[in-house]
Amino acid sequence: MTQTPNLADVSAGPADVGHLLVRGQELLIQHSESARLDAELLLAHVLGRPRSYLGAHPEILPEPDAVGRYQDLLRRRAQGEPIAYLTGEREFWSLPLMVNADVLVPRPETELAAERCLALYGPQPAQVVDLGTGSGAIALALASERPAWQVFATDRSGSALQIARANAARLGLEAVRFLQGDWFEPLAANRFHLIVSNPPYIAANDPHLADLRFEPALALTPGATGMEALELILRQAPGHLVPGGWLVLEHGNDQGQKLRSALVAAGYARVRCYADLAGHDRVTEAQWPHG
Questions:
Q1: What is the pLDDT averaged over residues 214-230?
Q2: Residue 5 has what pLDDT?
């Protein structure tokens, strides 16, 4: 079980910005690989200032209530709660997205899925859907880059869609259509040039789930093997793709070969896998052949 540090003395000694950052880093060092950055992000959030302000004004004395809020956020971070949930925001594709515990924290590697979508289709009009959109990250990234695309996004969670719609409004991307339902369920007979998804793909018994306990379980694991959602999507996608349309899927780093084999067996063509910045298989794309 994660041990929580004693945070009672976070403001022991001088309580200026410089000392608060040092104490925050010391208190998080055993609990985070980015203890200094975490402390800076949390204090900047509490003060309503950019991180650059902290370095420029280490002598500033925050109000006691601000110090108290900072201490509380440090405690929660030490227990493993994601920084994005503590600050309520995460950047994705250079877009500031609101997040909370109803949605998965957008990961940098998911930007590869958006990148591949943009590589497959240019600025010409296209029908595109993001399945299991969560915070709306992929759908909004695509809409921001391709104004001529008609972008749809589905999610089973009404709470997640509230966040996604709020992000769309905040970014001025309200043309994205958000629909509630499992995967293809709310799409009726619509067909798309491009289907993209970052579905849950962690096996139910994977020990890494313990480190992700603050994030919604339904967005992390689909079942025993971790392949259940990927397999469902690849089976049902042909009924929603135009001839020559593309399916783009994010997946686990050990699932690429199995997914590629399943796509080929299902009749897809031009099946290709792409590695993330860490060199792990992360995104696989496949084309539904022309008639």
A1: 90
A2: 44
Average pLDDT score, the chain: 92
What number of CA atoms fall less than 13 Å from residue 107's CA on the CB side? 18
CATH number belonging to the domain at 100-287, selected among 3.30.70.1050, 3.40.50.150, 3.40.50.620, 1.10.8.10: 3.40.50.150
**Would the pLDDT of 7 be above 80?**
no
pLDDT at 213: 87
The domain made up of 17-81 is a member of CATH 1.20.950.20: no
Q: pTM for this one?
A: 0.89
- The span from the first CA to the last CA of the chain, in angstroms, equals 55
Residue with tokens 């608060």: 20
> Of 165, 108, 95, 171, whose CA–CA distance to 133 is shortest?
165
Bridge-based pairing of strands 177-180 and 150-155 is parallel
Summarised one tens digit per residue, pLDDT across range 262-285 is 999 999 999 999 999 989 999 999
